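Hello,

Our lab assistant flagged a job as stuck in the queue for most of the afternoon. It eventually completed. Since we weren't sure the result was trustworthy after the delay, we are filing this so someone can double-check. Below is the sequence as submitted and the structure that was eventually returned. Let us know if re-running is recommended.
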Amino acid sequence: MKHLRALVIKSLMITLVLVTLLTMFNGYPLLNTIFLSLLITGLAYVIGDLLILQRANNTVSTVADIALCTLKIWVLAPFILGAAVPFSLAFISALLIGGGEWFFHKYMAGTVLDEEDDLVGGH
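-- returned structure --
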């Protein structure tokens, strides 16, 4: 249940940023943007929150999320949105998402991840 709640929070955050920047300000299709945000949420949760955050700190995980999010938006957009997203727009979107990720990682570490999950290599 903790992971489901975390995924909903993360999904809402990413969707809000992408719908605002991509759809409202740049005219990309709404449903496609929502689909892109859900795909990014799933990938970012597994890579950034469950793998990197548990093995590194919040700063490293946030920077990794920004880099990965930029690449995911930039590379996946032509296939999902039907048009390329300029790298600068992908990067700005990722920076805004990264700002939210900083706080989301604090939530993850304090609420979702168990103490034993934080230990690399177990006891």
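-- support follow-up --
The delay was a queue issue, not a problem with the job. The result is valid. Confidence is low (pLDDT under 50) at residues 118-123. The radius of gyration is 15 Å.
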